[in-house]
Amino acid sequence: MPTRLIANALLFQAGWFACVMGGTSWWLLIPLAALVVHFCWISSWAAEGKLVVSVALAGAALDSFLLQLGVFDFATTDTLAPLWLVLLWALLGTTLNHSLAWSAKPIWLAAVLGAIGGPLAYFAGSALASVSLPLGQQATLWILAPIWALVFPLLHGFAHLYREQFRLLKLSRRR
User: How far apart are CA 91 and CA 55, in angstroms?
Assistant: First the structure.
């Protein structure tokens, strides 16, 4: 496996742990550093900035909506997803063209991985970050699994769209 794919996966994991363990503390410098390393060494802002921002905004909107529905309860906020969770979404965006690119095709693979991996990540994160699941684990699983079965393929769709836009932009600049 190429070094940059491994680095991408390790940066994501380090950022994930820092976000869920650190909440709003100085630990959030770790995911920010992971994003900087990603854009300086693994990819570039020009190639993936739009994807990372789109994933962060879409994820923040989704988690804020689920918060409003009472699926999550963050001790620090009752209106919008907390900053650490938005950073998690941005970090996820950095993996779509790299360490998680294998999960894009066939599309059903992304749906299955999303349906299983999405809720598992929330359950692990909720235990570490002291986020409560007011509806209980089973009801939360039944809510998150179909959402993530749709969200993860959609995120891969964003990644594909932005890759093609970047490729066409590079081609047009060569002419």
Answer: 9
Q: How far apart are CA 108 and CA 114, in angstroms?
A: 10
CB 16 within 8 A of CB 34: no
DSSP string covering 12-71, please? HHHHHHHHHHHTTSGGGHHHHHHHHHIIIIIS-HHHHHHHHHHHHHHHHHHHHHHHHTTS
pLDDT in tens, 3-27: 999 999 999 999 999 999 887 789 9
Q: What share of the chain is helix, strand, coil (3-state, %, to 5)?
A: 80, 0, 20
φ, ψ at 173 (rounded to 5°): -75, -20
**The pTM is what?**
0.95
The pLDDT tens digits of the residues spanning 128-143 come to: 887 899 999 999 999 9
